[in-house]
Design goal:
Blueprint: E1 3-7, E2 17-23, E3 30-31, E4 36-41, E5 46-50, E6 55-60, E7 67-69, E8 73-78, H1 99-103, H2 162-174, H3 185-193, H4 212-219, H5 235-241, H6 269-284, E9 287-295, H7 297-309, H8 317-331, E10 338-341, E11 347-350, E12 357-359, E13 361-363, E14 366-368, E15 371-372, H9 380-395, E16 409-413, E17 432-436, E18 440-446, E19 449-463, H10 469-484, H11 486-491
Parallel strand pairs: 12-16, 16-17
Antiparallel strand pairs: 1-8, 2-4, 2-7, 3-6, 4-5, 6-8, 9-19, 10-11, 12-15, 13-14, 17-19, 18-19
Helix pairs in contact: 3-4, 8-9, 8-10
Length: about 500
């Protein structure tokens, strides 16, 4: 039989990893060319990955919830070509030991080179569109539990001494035909980050399986033989000296608070991307915030009139405000720029011919920012159509990476959550974000008389490195005036 291994393809837009959400096939299933085999979650969207090979599923590399690097093995398929020579699972990035080579178990290092990646397959995988030259199809099955690793040794008996276990590990490491027994991509990445050759690490798991604590112990400074941990040394040092006796990984009681731990949720997928983006924004951007209360009564009246005239095509409030924002950016373009640092350490402000308008959208996967490309060329009705289309895609998890990136200015309507105002965090690498609060009845002075009006609050957070208070205040005041007198402003657009 000939086993072909398909690696996680390049997902585009600079993405280097993806979280494996669920398998769509199981070991032993028959797959066709371009049949979806797994659902993965990239930075902010979920996509199905098609397989470029046809045959029988031989092995699934990874479990649901794991994060895989681009180029790491994803699935091995028996293509049924028994006349061929068994192909090693090599490949991946050039230089050093690849993930495929680490996953290879029992393969002969002297074996011949593997066939080209395009032999018997359909070609390069394009996420969401299948692969060129292949026909989609094939019966999809319900996801099942991932199969066990292809090569595992029998569990070590509890009566074996530590010296015998060490000897067995040394014999395994010296065997020319066996690769390190490691199945977790997290363990591999941890070893790589700490500069360790995974083949030199002794595993304390069943059959010599290399676990995370084994890598941490191997990376810790070695203590002299027979030396005891000094008095007052941290408990982690003692654990590193005795990797065969692991400390509890999930204690029932939190040492800091004394409360029982109800659960642990890994920061992964969209939540991790949001955390990284927000941290970077706060760390790099010296932001300032200005805000103003606005009488939106006339804007609501205009919206009601448009809806009465044409209920199907009447733009929503967000589309009208977006149109006012674009008019303000045309007068104050510095708020839709980007600050870049060059190789020599100097900085420059990058200006753009137009605006890609981003808007914050809350989804089940977290907060995302779809981008309306060339928004400055659209009318209020055109903006309304794009807002609805991109919001639906984002909430369904079907928006592409291109549709979730590339914005130069962001509009955030946090009023839908019932809040009046907020100090928004700038969507890095942009330099400004405008927030809109809820519209409610409040007392307001009109022509010297107290009246009940529809009030909202606009807040602008801006990067003080590229914009001063005068420009920020001028932009905010222009948008506020447009909200208060929409008819006169729309006549000029």
């Amino acid at each position: 039989m000939t086993v072909r291994t398909f690696t996680l393809p390049d997902l585009g837009e600079g993405l280097t990893e993806a979280e494996l959400v669920t398998w769509l096939v199981s070991v032993g299933d028959t797959v066709a060319v371009d049949q979806p085999i797994a659902e993965v979650e990239t930075a902010k969207s979920a996509v199905e990955v098609p397989c470029p090979f046809a045959g029988t599923v031989h092995r699934l590399h990874g479990d649901a919830g794991q994060t895989l690097d681009v180029g790491a093995p994803l699935i091995s398929v028996d293509t049924g070509d028994r006349a061929g020579t068994p192909a090693p699972e090599g490949g991946g990035p050039k230089g050093g030991q690849s993930y495929r080579e680490e996953e290879r178990a029992g393969a002969d290092p002297a074996a011949g080179t593997s066939p080209g990646d395009d032999d018997g397959g359909s070609g390069s995988v394009l996420i969401g569109y299948g692969t060129p030259g292949g026909a989609s199809g094939g019966r999809r099955r319900r996801p099942k539990r991932s199969a066990a690793p292809a090569v595992t040794a029998a569990p070590v008996s509890a009566t074996v001494t530590s010296a015998a276990t060490a000897a067995a590990h040394d014999a395994m490491a010296s065997a020319p035909r066996l690769a390190p027994t490691v199945v977790s991509p997290i363990v591999r990445k941890l070893a790589k980050d700490r500069g360790l050759d995974i083949a030199t690490v002794r595993g304390s798991g069943p059959g010599g399986l290399i676990l995370r604590r084994d890598v941490e112990a191997a990376a810790a400074p070695a203590a002299p033989d027979g030396a005891a941990a000094p008095a007052g040394a941290p408990a982690g040092d003692a654990a590193a000296a005795s990797p065969a006796v692991p400390a509890p990984e999930d204690p029932a009681v939190d040492a800091r608070t004394g409360l029982r731990v109800a659960g642990r949720v890994p920061v992964s997928g969209v939540r991790r991307v949001i955390a990284q983006a927000m941290t970077r924004s706060r760390a790099e951007i010296p932001e300032a915030t200005v805000w103003v209360d606005v009488d939106a009564t006339r804007l609501l009246e205009l919206r009601a009139e448009l809806k009465a005239q044409d209920p199907e095509r009447a733009p929503g409030l967000m589309a009208l405000i977006a149109r006012f924002v674009l008019a303000g950016l045309a007068r104050h373009p510095e708020l839709a720029t980007r600050l870049e640092t060059r190789e020599d350490g100097s900085q420059e402000i990058v200006r753009f011919d137009g605006v890609n308008l981003g808007f914050a959208a809350q989804t089940d996967r977290g907060l995302v920012v779809p981008s309306i490309r060339d928004a400055h060329t659209l009318s209020a009705r055109g903006l309304d159509a794009e807002l609805k289309r991109l919001t639906a895609l984002a909430r369904a998890g079907k928006a592409s990476p291109a549709e979730l990136s590339g914005s130069t200015f962001t509009l955030n309507n946090y009023g839908v959550f019932g809040t009046d105002g907020a100090a928004a965090i700038i969507n890095h690498p942009e330099v400004a974000i405008l927030g809109v609060g809820r519209i409610i009845d409040r007392p307001w002075v009109v022509d010297g008389q107290l009246a009940v009006r529809k009030l909202t609050q606009l807040s602008l957070a801006f990067d003080h490195r590229v914009c001063d208070g005068g420009a920020a205040g001028g932009f905010l005041r222009m948008v506020a005036d447009a909200v208060e007198n929409p008819v006169s402003v729309l006549a000029d657009l």
